[in-house]
């Protein structure tokens, strides 16, 4: 099932649990605006190359639309639509005053030079500058993009609209980025994991972990879980996977990676088959890479007792059903990875106020928001007798539906 079908299916199940008016249900599902732009740039060899860029603005009932920009060869309109919709429910679960959006360019950033990436980002920004804005739609980094991409977007946007630091989040600190934003999604994953394990009388210290993805989210989640005493038995990225029964020394692995080493060349672990990673023995499995990685083929073999969805949409609905029957507890993406958008909100607030917070304040506020999101999700599970995914979806959908109705929807 593709990402859009799966997300819409979860939304419809939540709408039914909430007994939502069918007309409102239909209206909430349809995106506010879908943008598709052609971006042609000169490559370094002088030849022209064309790429397709997307921005889907899903809903703005609760505030400006918010969502990442992804550079990946598999970016397509359906996936961007699904991720934009997920952002609408995620910002509502996180209780930050935003709607949802998502964007991307179908390209392989690893094959583009820095100057080609800069030209592509600037052309994309030129094509969408009149549709984004501090109080309209605020992009952020996602897979294949980073603080530098946001710096180029900010600079290009400011040529048209004047200096506008709050038009993007996830910026470099020197351009108004927030302290703690880089680690925020991984830190939020750590807080979410703590909250879930505590419900079962467990803690990070004394639990074993497997992590897929060692980029921004995966590497921060791994470092913070390691700091809290969690034992990471295996992890992998696009280049391969490694394991160590005694637990991987994450600070040593970070040093190895920051020195340019590949995972497979790390001396503190043995190389393993990447196909085995998601079904490796552990207490907690944390997918931090692509969507759809847990499916009906591998779900029956999953050995983890808990899955924390740090990636967006890592679990197919078919896998969800299989995992539920096996008694595996899945903490859904729209709550588990909301740390990034929560600190993006703090960054936006700091830019608008012109007053920067210290890192301790950012991390303390993030912890409060993550704990509150968990508490409210659990309350929905209790009142509607549903699992955590439906608890989070009903929480988010209900908040967006209420805002839509309050604005006056039927006149
Ligand atoms: N960065 C954020 O703030 C943020 C916030 C919320 C959700 N997310 C989601 O988290 C996930 C990861 O995002 P990120 O920002 O860390 O991206 P990233 O580009 O920094 O890292 C992605 C990681 O996934 C790995 N990967 C890619 N293909 C893989 C494959 N086939 N098998 C195994 N590993 C593979 C890459 O090697 C890399 O380690 C995405 O689903 C993204 O949408 C990110």
How would you characterize this protein structure?
With 411 residues, the chain is an alpha/beta fold. It has 2 domains: 31-175, Rossmann fold (3-Layer(aba) Sandwich); 183-411, NAD(P)-binding Rossmann-like Domain (Rossmann fold, 3-Layer(aba) Sandwich), CATH 3.40.50. 45% of the residues lie in helices and 18% in strands. The chain contains 13 helices and 12 strands. It has helices at 3-17, 22-29, 77-94, 114-128, 147-161, 181-199, 216-227, 250-258, 317-326, 333-336, 339-353, 359-384, 388-407; strands at 33-42, 48-59, 65-72, 99-106, 137-141, 208-212, 231-237, 240-243, 270-272, 284-287, 306-308, 329-331. Residues 141-144, 185, 212-218, 236-238, 288-290, 310-312, 337, 340 line the site of nicotinamide-adenine-dinucleotide. This is Glutamate dehydrogenase. Residues 178-408 form the Glutamate/phenylalanine/leucine/valine/L-tryptophan dehydrogenase C-terminal domain. The active site is at 102 (proton donor).
């Amino acid at each position: 099932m593709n990402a859009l079908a799966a997300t819409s299916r979860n939304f419809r199940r939540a709408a039914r649990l909430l007994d939502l008016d069918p007309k409102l249900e239909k209206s909430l599902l349809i995106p506010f605006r879908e943008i598709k732009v052609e971006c042609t740039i000169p490559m370094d060899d002088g030849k022209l190359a064309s790429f397709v860029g997307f921005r889907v603005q899903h809903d703005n009932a609760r505030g400006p639309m918010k969502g990442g920009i992804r550079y990946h060869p598999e970016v397509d309109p359906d996936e961007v639509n699904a991720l934009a919709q997920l952002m609408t429910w995620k910002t509502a679960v996180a209780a930050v005053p935003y709607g949802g959006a998502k964007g991307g360019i179908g390209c392989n950033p690893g094959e583009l030079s820095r100057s080609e990436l800069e030209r592509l980002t600037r052309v994309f920004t030129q094509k969408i500058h009149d549709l984004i804005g501090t109080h309209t739609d605020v992009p952020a980094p996602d897979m294949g993009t980073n603080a530098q991409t946001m710096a180029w977007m900010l600079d290009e946007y400011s040529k048209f609209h004047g200096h506008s630091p709050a038009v993007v989040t996830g910026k470099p600190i020197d351009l108004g980025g927030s302290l703690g934003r880089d680690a925020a999604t991984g830190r939020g994953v750590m807080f979410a994991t703590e909250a879930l394990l505590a419900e079962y009388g467990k803690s990070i210290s004394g639990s074993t972990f497997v992590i897929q993805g060692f980029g921004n989210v995966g590497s921060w989640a791994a470092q913070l879980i390691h700091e809290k005493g969690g034992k990471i038995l295996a992890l992998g990225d696009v280049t391969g996977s490694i394991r160590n029964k005694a637990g991987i020394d994450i600070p040593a692995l970070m040093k190895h990676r920051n020195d340019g080493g590949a995972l497979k060349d790390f001396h503190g672990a043995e190389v393993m088959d990447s196909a085995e990673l998601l079904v490796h023995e552990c207490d907690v499995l944390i997918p931090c890479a692509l969507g759809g990685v847990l499916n009906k083929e591998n779900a029956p073999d999953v050995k983890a007792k808990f899955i924390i969805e740090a990636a967006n949409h890592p679990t197919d609905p078919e896998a969800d059903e299989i995992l539920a029957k096996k008694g595996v507890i899945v903490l859904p993406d729209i709550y588990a990875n909301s740390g990034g958008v929560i600190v993006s909100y703090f960054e936006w607030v700091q830019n608008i106020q012109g007053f920067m917070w210290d890192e301790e304040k950012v991390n303390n506020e993030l912890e409060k928001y993550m704990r509150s999101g968990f508490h409210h999700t659990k309350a929905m599970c209790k009142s509607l007798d549903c699992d955590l995914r439906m608890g989070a979806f009903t929480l988010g959908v209900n908040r967006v539906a209420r805002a839509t109705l309050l604005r006056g929807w039927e006149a």
